[in-house]
Amino acid sequence: MIRKQNGFGRNNFTHREIRLNVLYAFYETWWFRLVAILTICVSLFLIVKYRINSLQKQNRLQEVEIAQRTQTLQITLEVSQDKLMGQMFMLERLLGTISHDIKTPLLFLARSNKRLVKINVRRLTCCAVF
User: Fold this and answer.
1) CA distance 119 to 113
2) Rounded distance between C-alpha atoms, residue 9 and residue 129, angstroms
3) Which helix (H) or strand (E) holds 6?
4) Radius of gyration of the chain (CA)
5) Which value, to the nearest 10 degrees, does the dihedral of the CA atoms of residues 117, 118, 124, 127 take?
6) β-pair partners for 4
7) Which pTM does this prediction carry?
């Protein structure tokens, strides 16, 4: 409502009513709110989808790396087993050689001792008879 003074006087006014149709701001409209909600939903969906794809790709890369490491460890294990078998063979040969080297002189001494005992027994029996 608009009031205008007409001339002079205390209560000399003219009143006029003007209807103004003020449109809502674009961010206050229903269609903008709908578009905003859809945009947020689509954005969240895309973010989640991107994250899932990223995790799946990372998982595949880790599986490949684990497979490679497992293969490397398997090869290392086989090489280590071969080396261990070689070491065990060498140890058996070394123990056999050491045992032979210890037994041979001892057998020689034992046989020599038996022979000396026989000789001494003969001497003693020969000397005792005379």
Assistant:
1) 10
2) 185
3) none
4) 56
5) -140
6) 14
7) 0.51
